[in-house]
Design brief:
It is built from 11 helices and 2 strands. The chain is mostly helical and 273 residues long. The chain has a two-stranded antiparallel sheet. The longest helix has 25 residues. It comes from Kurthia sibirica. This is Probable membrane transporter protein. Belongs to the 4-toluene sulfonate uptake permease (TSUP) (TC 2.A.102) family. It is a multi-pass membrane protein.
């Protein structure tokens, strides 16, 4: 039963994570909190184990989907590396803090984060692009494999500051940060959505390597479950990246908004009880 749960949610996390550039942690973490800890179907799991398992999984979700996006020429490697440099210290801080979170605290803070992410996604379409950051930042001109040209950009100092806090959330809760990175890239830095998703997954891949190293150091990785979640997530991410090119993104985002909001509210309630 334990391995079946891990495989099913690893597969779903890979699909959804690659489909909208999230990394999959926002699916795996609440699912294992509920089925593994609340329902006690996987009694050996702790919140730290769930975070550790999630960050290991995201290495392969990020790698799988990045390789798929490479073929379409939509990954902005330079921006991904700049954002990665800002996220590394935040990731290390977050992994350290996660050691001290018990189950109620984890549920409460994680639920608040999910609600914030859901609100960002709900109102994302109503936010007007902010041209100030491009005007006062480093401008980037990119041409994809179809010959489409785009111009966007950002101040490096601001990108570092934002990714520090996103990295910290990733280290604490085992999420990839894509749910916050993609809106940031699209709304503030004027990234085209498909380049934002692809670059986000590249960043998720890089950040998850550092994140995993931190959690390995703290002994948070349940290695017996890693062999179940990694293949499932990798296959799911391949499928999700393929779906990204076919589905209407508005439909996917709508479903994700509702899901994250429900999961967040439930997690807050559990944390307060």
């Amino acid at each position: 039963m334990s391995y079946t749960i891990i495989v099913v949610f690893g597969l779903l996390s890979g699909i959804i994570g690659a489909l909208v550039g999230l990394g999959g942690g926002v699916i795996l973490v609440p699912a294992l909190l509920y089925f593994g800890i609340t329902l006690e179907l996987i009694p050996s799991l702790t919140t730290q184990n769930i975070v550790g398992l999630s960050v290991i999984m995201m290495i392969f979700v990020g790698l799988s989907s990045t390789l798929s996006y490479v073929k379409s020429g939509t990954v902005d490697y330079k921006s991904g590396l700049i954002l990665f440099a800002g996220s590394v210290p935040g990731t290390l801080v977050g992994a350290y803090i996660s050691k001290y979170l018990d189950v109620p605290s984890f549920n409460l803070y994680f639920g608040i984060l999910l609600v914030i992410i859901a609100i960002i996604l709900i109102f994302r379409d109503r936010f007007k692009p902010i041209h100030w950051f491009v005007k006062h930042g480093q401008k980037i001109n990119k041409t994809d494999n179809d010959g489409n040209q785009y111009t966007y950009g950002y101040p490096i100092w601001f990108a570092f500051m934002m990714t520090f806090f996103i990295g910290m959330a990733s280290g604490m809760f085992g999420i990839g940060g894509g749910s916050m990175i993609v809106p940031m890239l699209v709304i503030l830095f004027l990234f085209p959505p498909h380049i934002a998703v692809a670059t986000s997954m590249f960043l998720v891949f890089l950040t998850s390597i550092v994140n995993s190293a931190s959690h390995i150091y703290y002994g948070h990785i349940p290695w017996n479950f890693v062999i179940a979640v990694v293949p499932a997530a990798y296959i799911g991410a391949k499928f999700g990246a393929a779906l990204n090119k076919k589905l209407q993104s508005d439909t996917v985002i709508l479903l994700l908004r509702i899901l994250l909001l429900v999961l967040g509210i439930r997690s807050i309630i559990v944390g307060l009880l």
